[in-house]
Specification:
The chain is mainly α. 48% of the residues lie in helices and 8% in strands.
Length: 275
């Protein structure tokens, strides 16, 4: 058997297309979108013009094409600087620069990883008959949020609604992942953990699965529950990543909402001027 080594990265065409097709919108427009439409939109808080938003989006799309992380982050920072670095006092300006640099990395991480995640989600949907389960994986380091760490290695049916809103990255800066699992793999884990309390098991079934559907994760040894709702579920607005909604048509998205909500959105959308 011979091995082939790659000296240059292979472009991830599907991820490139997913990122590049997102529509640039200002933050006020983004926040007024129905949840499913936010997956098709691109915004940066503080940037109020569409042309720099387009340029930032296109820079992010270079990441799955093999773009250099540091070079892309620097270019995004250059686009952000006129909007976010406005102070004349040297100390305050230095503080704004550090903040803008963190924002540039977050933009690249969130949107770049989301492109990969949507492509991965579609691939997993296509093999659900063979891989009917999915396992949540955190980055397992000190930077992981408590809720994301608690979900680490938890297993749910691949078609469960949980994955509609909790496929990583489901919060800003999320570095988690999900991987497909076969029936046999899950059966072995279920067998090995059958003597454990339900809330301590990796395969979520019964009350732990019902709790997930209420936006809660039961903690080990019945010590309580964690609120794992998305920021949008908690506040009614804000970040929420829905990888499956990119495949919905406009009519299918509206059909997911009650008639008054759909009508209110359409009435609002008709008032928004487009460049």
């Amino acid at each position: 058997m011979s091995a082939t080594f790659l000296s240059t990265p292979i472009p991830h065409d599907e991820a490139i297309g997913i990122i590049a097709s997102a529509s640039p919108v200002t933050r006020d427009i983004f926040d007024a979108l129905l949840p499913e439409f936010t997956s098709r939109a691109f915004t940066v808080t503080g940037v109020e013009a569409l042309e720099p938003l387009r340029r930032i989006r296109d820079l992010v799309a270079q990441l799955p094409a093999g773009g250099d992380w540091d070079d892309l982050k620097t270019s995004i920072l250059d686009e952000l600087s006129p909007w976010l670095i406005t102070a004349t006092d040297p100390d305050e300006r230095a503080s704004q620069l550090r903040s803008a640099a963190r924002r540039a990395e977050l933009i690249l991480r969130n949107n770049g990883w989301a492109g990969y995640a949507v492509a991965n989600h579609r691939a997993m949907e296509s093999v659900q008959d063979d891989f009917p389960y999915a396992m949540y994986l955190s980055s397992e380091d000190e930077r992981v949020r408590k809720t994301h760490a608690a979900l680490n290695k938890k297993i749910l049916p691949a078609a469960h609604p949980f994955w509609e809103t909790h496929t990583p990255p489901w919060e800003h800066g999320c570095r988690c992942d999900k991987v497909p699992m076969t029936e046999n793999e899950v059966g072995e884990i279920r067998q090995a953990e059958q003597s454990l309390p339900l809330e301590n098991r990796r395969v979520l079934e019964g009350p732990p699965l019902e709790a997930i559907e209420r936006g809660q994760l039961l903690t080990p040894n019945a010590t309580g529950a964690l609120d794992i709702r998305t920021p949008r579920e908690k506040k009614g607005s804000g970040y929420e990543f829905r990888p499956g909604t990119l495949d919905f048509s406009y009519d299918e998205i509206l059909a997911r909402h009650d008639a008054p909500t759909a009508a209110a959105f359409q009435a609002w959308a008709e008032t928004i001027p487009l460049e």
